[in-house]
Amino acid sequence: SAVISQKPSRDICQRGTSLTIQCQVDSQVTMMFWYRQQPGQSLTLIATANQGSEATYESGFVIDKFPISRPNLTFSTLTVSNMSPEDSSIYLCSLSGTGTGGYNEQFFGPGTRLTVL
Amino acid sequence: AQKVTQAQTEISVVEKEDVTLDCVYETRDTTYYLFWYKQPPSGELVFLIRRNSFDEQNEISGRYSWNFQKSTSSFNFTITASQVVDSAVYFCALSEPGSNYQLIWGAGTKLIIKP
Q: Which terminal residue of chain A has fewer beta carbons within 10 Å of its beta carbon, N or C?
C-alpha cells in the first residue's frame, strides 16, 4: 500500500492564527480525504480533496475555515484558519485508490495533533 | 439511513483472555462494505479488514477473527489470547456504492488489555 506522510506531526498554536497541514503520498491516488478527530471521539469527514478542482465539503465544514488544495495526485494541504480552542483535534488525511472489485479500504496518514491555546 | 453502532464504549480484560468487539450496522443497500480499523495510543489508524456484503465467509488472521452475519447486520471482531499490544481503540466502518468512497464510522471501542 502507499506510504502517507503528514507534516507537522503536532503543533501548538495561538487562537486566531492559521495552520497548514501537508499530506504527501508516495504514489498517485485518485481519492484523498481530510478528517478531524476530536479528543475521545470518532472520525468526522471534513472534505474530499479533488485533484484539479475545488474540494467537496461535508455539512458543517466550509471552505473559508478549512481551505484545501490538491495540486496533483500525490499531495494535498488542509489549512485550519482563524483557529479557536475548539479546533484542537487530530487531523488525518486518507486515500482510497482505484482497484478491482469495487470499493477499496482507506489508508490513513499518521495524523497531525493540533492544540489551540 | 446508514449507521454503525459500537455499543461497547470500553472493554477491559486480562492478558490472554479472548475478547469480542461488537459492530452493528444499518444500510438500505444490498451491496456494501464493512471495515475494522485499529487506533493505538500513537494515534495512527491501521486498516485491519474489509468485508464485502456478498461474501459472508468468516475471516481469521492469526489471533484475529471476524464474524459477519447479514441476518443480524453484525460484523463482530474477536481477539483470541489477547496481548497488551492489542490495547487500542477499534473502529468499525461502513461504505456504500455511490457514496464516493465515504466511510460511516462507529463511535469506537476502547480495548484495555491488562498484564
A: C
Residue B73's pLDDT is 96
Chain B positions in Cβ-Cβ contact with residue A104 (cut-off 8 Å): 50, 101
Q: What is the pLDDT of residues A82-108, one digit of tens each?
A: 999 999 999 999 988 654 444 568 889
Do residues B101 and A96 lie in contact, with contact meaning Cβ atoms separated by under 8 Å? yes
Cβ atoms A116, A101 nearer than 8 A: no
**Tens of pLDDT, residue by residue, chain B (115 residues):** 789 999 999 999 999 999 999 999 999 888 899 999 999 998 899 999 999 898 888 888 999 999 999 999 999 999 999 999 999 999 999 998 777 768 999 999 999 999 9
Across the interface, of A96, A104, A108, the residue whose CB is closest to B45 is A108
Q: Is B33's CB within 8 Å of A102's CB? A: yes
CB of B33 within 8 Å of a chain A CB? The answer is yes
B15 touches B112 (CB < 8 A): no
Contact criterion met (CB below 8 Å) for B13 and B114: yes
Query: Residue B32 half-sphere exposure, CB side, CA atoms within 13 Å?
Result: 24
- Type and span of the H or E element at A71: strand A68-72
What is residue B4's three-state secondary structure? strand
**What is the phi/psi pair of residue A84, to 5°?**
-130, 165
Is A79 in contact with A8 (CB distance < 8 Å)?
no
A101 grid coordinates: 472489485
pLDDT band with cut points at 50, 70 and 90 for residue A54: confident
